[in-house]
Design a protein that fits this description.
This protein is of the alpha+beta class. The protein has four helices and five strands.
């Protein structure tokens, strides 16, 4: 996949800072960069893992989400910045 540079959310005040991102269709790219929270499905797609893994195994490995609501209708969300930080911690040295 081609890589292109887009402005990072933290760098909106500093237009010189750019972050490389895998090219996505413009609609998905805009959504992913402008939103700070990802649904469990979006996070699973981003990490290329199953949705079951996000609910069952991710918390065991340190990737914790935020629960919105109660009971069966509760929704799990992940902060984009925390997903990126967790992903960087998984790097093998």
């Amino acid at each position: 996949m081609p890589i292109r540079d887009i402005p990072c959310l933290d760098s909106i005040a500093q237009p010189s800072a750019w972050v490389p991102v895998v090219a996505l269709p413009d609609s998905e790219l805009t959504i992913m960069t402008l939103r700070s929270m990802l649904t469990a499905k979006e996070a699973a797609d981003f990490l290329n893992v199953s949705l079951t893994w996000m609910y069952r195994d991710a918390p065991k490995l340190g990737l914790t989400g935020y629960k919105f609501g109660r009971g069966k209708n509760a929704k799990l969300r992940f902060k984009y910045s925390e997903v990126i930080k967790w992903l960087e911690q998984q790097k093998i040295h």
